[in-house]
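Field reference: sequence -> structure
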Amino acid sequence: MKLKKTIVSGLVAASVFCAGSLTAFAGYQSYFYASKAEYEAMVKTSGNYYYLAAATGDYNCLGYALGDTSHWVWPWGSSNPTLQQANNYMTSQMYNPYPYSSTPSNVKIIAYGTSTSNVTHFSKVADANHSNAKWGGWERLQSLGWDPYTNLVYGSALEKYN
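Structure field:
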């Protein structure tokens, strides 16, 4: 096992590389944008958020999921879309919608919501076990699983896109 140190927002963090893959550090770090309680309230499993990139208001979850880290992308203005509106938009971006299931099948993006009338968030699938997302104006984070959020803000996985 090889230990590599990286500078993150002026602090030193340790990342462990095992057989060429990154094992991220879990949970809250002192340089995170918001309080630990706010992060913990967002996820079903305590500490299920791993730092990927610094907090910024330059882009959001949908922008990141679509590969745009220069723009805040939310075509519904200050409202959250219904699942049908989200599907219509994603179809216009050349993504095919399918009802959510945890079975991997070339999934690229996942939509979340507190109901089919309130889509709140999008993530990018990292692999069969992880999802990466930009949490609003907060950090870009990785979570174990594709359905890591509570209903406090983001809600459950509703749809997948490939």
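Note: The two ends are 35 Å apart (CA to CA).
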